[in-house]
Write a sequence for this structure.
């Protein structure tokens, strides 16, 4: 039996093609490495994009391993009519069609040009290759929100390829059983981001994700702020509402 940890990269800088991590993204990656360092990991894999490679770097140092670059783990950045310039959703204007699509849960409309069947086929091929290389053990693959969406959609039989927004450095766990069946253990774990205080630029609360509960469960939403959370209001946890981020 093999456990595969699907990790989304940390928060990147905006306004450039193939961005690296922002200062907060680097801190998120360090927190992730500390969180996973206590688990036995047999191999590390990463997308070729800079934001993924910088996310896995602290874990490489902690574990004394080198991540293998897998091209099929890449996001759709260079599959558009022109290379994608990464823009954090927080920088979108309110009337930007992408912001409206995310706010309404129409995640597939965020990238209308993308050949979704081909993209999902690539995601499935990438994960199958990793599983085939490791008949047992635990492996970590640092990738992107779109790839994680597409693969998990296949596993759970979701009707849409893009159906949720993974948090930055979130962990989603799947297992391939000896029978070959792949099952989901958890989706969108971000408990490592609430394990220590965060300083958030401009005093804005960071995006809330899902913290891991016990294996086989999906955790609850947690804040990423470095300030004491205000009293919770209806429909929120710790007073924070989840704000979407681009699934890339």
């Amino acid at each position: 039996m093999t456990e595969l940890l699907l990790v989304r990269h940390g928060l990147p800088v905006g306004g450039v093609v193939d961005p690296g991590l922002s200062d907060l993204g680097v801190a998120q990656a360090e927190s992730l490495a500390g969180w996973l360092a206590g688990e036995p990991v047999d191999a590390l894999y990463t997308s070729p994009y800079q934001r993924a490679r910088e996310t896995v770097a602290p874990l490489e140092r902690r574990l004394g391993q080198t991540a293998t670059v897998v091209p099929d783990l890449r996001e759709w950045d260079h599959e558009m009519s022109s290379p994608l310039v990464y823009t954090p959703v927080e920088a979108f204007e309110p009337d930007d069609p992408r912001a409206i699509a995310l706010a309404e849960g129409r995640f597939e409309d965020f990238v209308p040009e993308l050949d979704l069947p081909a993209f999902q086929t690539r995601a499935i091929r990438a994960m199958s290759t990793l599983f085939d290389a490791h008949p047992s053990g635990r492996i970590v693959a640092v990738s992107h929100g779109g790839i994680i969406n597409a693969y998990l959609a296949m596993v759970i039989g979701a009707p849409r390829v893009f159906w949720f927004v993974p948090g930055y450095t979130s962990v989603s766990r799947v297992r391939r059983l000896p029978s070959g069946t792949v099952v989901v253990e958890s989706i969108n774990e971000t408990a490592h981001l609430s394990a220590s205080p965060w300083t958030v630029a401009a005093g804005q609360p960071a995006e809330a994700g899902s913290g891991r509960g016990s294996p086989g469960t999906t955790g609850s939403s947690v804040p990423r702020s470095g300030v004491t959370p205000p009293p919770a209001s209806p429909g929120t946890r710790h007073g924070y509402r989840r704000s979407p981020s681009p699934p890339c």
